[in-house]
Amino acid sequence: MSLLMRAVCLMILLIWSGASLGQEFPSRPIRFIVPFPAGGPSDVISRVLVEKMSGLLGQTVVIENRAGAAGLNGIAAAAKSEPNGYTIAIAPSSSLAINVSLRDDMPFAPLKDLALITQIVSVPEILVVNESVPAHTLPELVALARSQPGKLTFASTGLGGMPHMAMELLKLAAGVDIVHVPYTGAAPAVNDLLGDHVQMMFADVPVLLGAIQSNKLRALAIGSRTRLAALPAVATTAELGLAKVEADNWYGLVAPAATPEPVVARLHSSAAEALHSPEMKEKLVAQGVIAVGNSSAEFRSYVESETARWGEVIKATGIMIR
Questions:
Q1: Taking a C-beta distance cutoff of 8 angstroms, is the pair 212, 135 a contact?
Q2: Which domains does the chain have, with CATH numbers?
Q3: Is pLDDT above 50 for 75?
Q4: CA-CA distances (angstroms) from residue 246 to 169, 223, 237, 302?
């Protein structure tokens, strides 16, 4: 057999093997790593997603909560797993885009060590204050902070998370000095905010929606480009004169980088179909969450642009985790 014929046969074999792999996958349950404790926004979103994906894949997708290091431990575990499609994860913006510039001890390189399958959702950040703060609008809060530099405090769900970075962006854009009080998650941060131990915070809409609707916290602005259906009366930061303060948290579906393309395609098709389904969109919109389900190429491009954008903010603020 000539070298040309051998090459053609090898190519046909590889194409057939790849197509066969995609058709056979999955043949057993899939592990879905959530890098935060149960009950948080990523966990809630994941449970809605895997319920739909399980049916589409014909296999159980089992959630494993693997918290630690603000989400990095779980994503690092996913990146180092066997690249066969049986370990996937939901990765937050902090793990894929922010911490690259914020930390010098990243346990993985997002664009190199992960297959970026699709963006799952976009979650607007909302700025709230507790009832003791004498500011009922964002301009009033900015004026108050300027009159009391270093006196007001804001909570976050942890160093480097989107709630932290959203407020740092606001501080930078408005030229105010507000003291950061980091917590180990959303629950303790919100508890102390309600208890008046801190005065304000940005957070994912689902985290604060109940407290806003029950008038326990006052919503001042949405850090997204458009208003939310769940809170139509709350203006965007752009509408309130701070267009540069744009902060949407987001989560993506990832797998180890060397996962075979047919397997990635199978995972993508099931996730995208789930996210585009009317029932799932309805469930998420009610929580102030926007389903995405874009292509892998579009998601990769978005991660690259977000990495560059937040890198500039981090450089301007001088924040660094060592």
A1: no
A2: 27-123+249-317 (3.40.190.150), 124-222 (3.40.190.10)
A3: yes
A4: 8, 5, 7, 15
